[in-house]
Design goal:
mainly alpha, two-stranded antiparallel ribbon, 2 strands, about 70% helix, elongated, disordered C terminus
Length: about 200
Amino acid sequence: MGSRKCGGCLSGLLIPLALWSIIVNILLYFPNGQTSYASSNKLTNYVWYFEGICFSGVMMLIVAAVLLVLENDNNCKCCQSENCSKTYMTLLSMIFSSLGIAFSGYCLVISALGLVQGPYCRTLDGWEYAFEGTAGRFLTDSSIWIQCLEPAHVVEWNIILFSILIALSGLQVIVCLIRVVTQLSKILCGNYSVIIQVSQ
């Protein structure tokens, strides 16, 4: 009962993380609350991968919903044996948790790439990725951020939001990984106990 309650809490935690990922990703489309840059396609290319909206957001909401159903459905009988049903449900839970790792991992990687690349902004030479060749060193040197003339404060905007996305998706990876490990231990321990009983 305790492990089921704990699993339900972990699955439930994925929901607010997914909702926040959607919100943060949407904000990336509107630097300083302005819509003109999105409509004229003057945003960093990594925001168009929909990592926070689709993968770490909507897909993770689906994963969380399925995991919650699997945790709370005590009457499901997918085969004749009760142990068989429990093993099947545990395996299904592990599969969806693994999908959660894949979805949130995708968001984590794309957000990290977007953070290191830097924003697409207008400089004295026109619209470009002003810090693309710095290998992320611009993140610790705020004195060069003034190279981006437009949108205003776009460097800070991108750094903060991409960092939040990394943190949110990183937490999702951890939660799903914990679930995979716990579900795998249930299957292995369950099989081990059955073998012991047969040998006796």
